[in-house]
């Protein structure tokens, strides 16, 4: 996919760069694999805000994606679609047993291509195998962390994981974040990198496009009044007078809230820290 820019007829068009979707399916999604979803607007099941600056946005339905890839029958790519719920494109697969499923579309997969899952599958783009059947040095995506639980790693646009080698009953994976970790040899992975690698190069162009995506304006706490935020108020321009916190007093930077995870023993190298 290429990037698409506009002639500067307006100020917003001058800066807008988006992904060209002219080659994707232009009709509606496959109805049996599409369900409605409600916009939570950043609220949890109690109705309390847990994520600020979210709300409204364009309505969109959820596409049911097959992250398990358990069908060991031949499938044909019927079409490639845009999915409003994720940055990657999705492919509708027509299997030989008269069923259809959506999968994460890898780079290089085209309409009419054949895909297969199982130990007899070839090392080709879109084929799904267990890690023990994949040669080291192969780029894979939609990788399971625990066998038979569905792919969890490398599902966003342009992402992939490199299978570095094997260590006993584990495979060694190198993630794009810089982390190196072990997972079971019985976990599944799909050959190739995820589609739409140009997603990282887009430019929103105008505030309205963010509103369409459900992103509301984000206001700094120091710009508010004391009644609205712990960092608000003060005579003139102030820094807040305390460490950064949320509107409800929760520390915003540096506070560790993650509980010890069992999988930590499988991590060989931690991911790179953000600068």
Topology:
Blueprint lengths: L2 E3 L5 H5 L1 E3 L14 E2 L26 E2 L11 E7 L8 E6 L4 E5 L9 E2 L12 E3 L8 E3 L1 E2 L6 E3 L7 E7 L2 E5 L5 E5 L3 E4 L15 H6 L54 E3 L6
Antiparallel strand pairs: 1-2, 3-4, 5-6, 5-8, 6-7, 9-16, 10-13, 10-16, 11-12, 13-14, 14-15, 15-17
- Output mean pLDDT: 92
Shape: globular
Strand proportion, as a percent range, falls in 15-25%
Radius of gyration: 22 Å
Q: Treating each run of at least 4 consecutive H or I residues as one helix, how many helices? A: 2
- Give me the count of strands: 17
Name given to the CATH architecture of the largest domain: Roll
Tell me what the structure shows:
Helix content is 4%, strand content 24%. It is mainly beta. The chain has two domains: 3-50 and 58-200, Roll (SH3 type barrels); 219-275, Ribosomal protein L2, domain 3, CATH 4.10.950.
Could you give a quick summary of the protein structure above?
With 275 residues, the protein is mainly beta. The protein is built from two helices and 17 strands. The protein has two domains: 3-50 and 58-200, Roll (SH3 type barrels); 219-275, Ribosomal protein L2, domain 3, CATH 4.10.950.
Relevant terms:
mainly beta, four-stranded antiparallel sheet, 275 residues, SH3 type barrels, seven-stranded antiparallel sheet, Ribosomal protein L2, domain 3, 2 domains, 24% strand
């Amino acid at each position: 996919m290429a990037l698409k820019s506009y002639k500067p007829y307006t100020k917003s068009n001058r800066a807008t760069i988006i992904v060209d979707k002219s080659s994707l399916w232009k009709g509606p999604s496959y109805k049996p694999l599409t369900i409605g979803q409600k916009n939570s607007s950043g609220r949890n099941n109690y109705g309390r805000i847990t994520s600020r600056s979210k709300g409204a946005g364009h309505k969109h339905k959820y596409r049911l994606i097959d992250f398990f890839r358990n069908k060991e029958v031949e499938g044909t790519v019927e079409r490639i679609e845009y999915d409003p719920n994720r940055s990657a494109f999705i492919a509708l697969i027509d299997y030989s047993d008269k069923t259809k499923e959506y999968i994460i579309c890898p780079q290089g997969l085209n309409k009419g291509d054949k895909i297969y899952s199982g130990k007899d599958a070839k090392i080709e783009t879109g084929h799904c195998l267990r890690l023990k059947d994949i040669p080291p040095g192969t780029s894979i995506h939609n990788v399971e962390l625990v066998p038979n639980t569905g792919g969890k790693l490398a599902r966003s646009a342009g992402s992939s994981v490199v299978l570095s080698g094997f260590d006993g009953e584990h495979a060694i994976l190198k993630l794009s974040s810089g982390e190196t970790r072990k997972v079971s040899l019985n976990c599944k992975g799909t050959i190739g990198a995820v589609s739409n690698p140009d997603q990282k190069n887009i430019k929103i162009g105008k505030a309205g496009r963010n509103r369409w995506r459900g992103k509301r304006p984000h206001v700094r706490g120091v710009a508010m009044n004391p009644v609205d935020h712990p960092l608000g108020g003060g005579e003139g321009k102030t820094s807040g007078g305390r460490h950064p916190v949320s509107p409800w007093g929760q520390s915003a930077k540096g506070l560790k809230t993650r509980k010890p995870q069992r999988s930590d023993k499988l991590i060989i190298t931690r991911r790179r820290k953000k600068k």
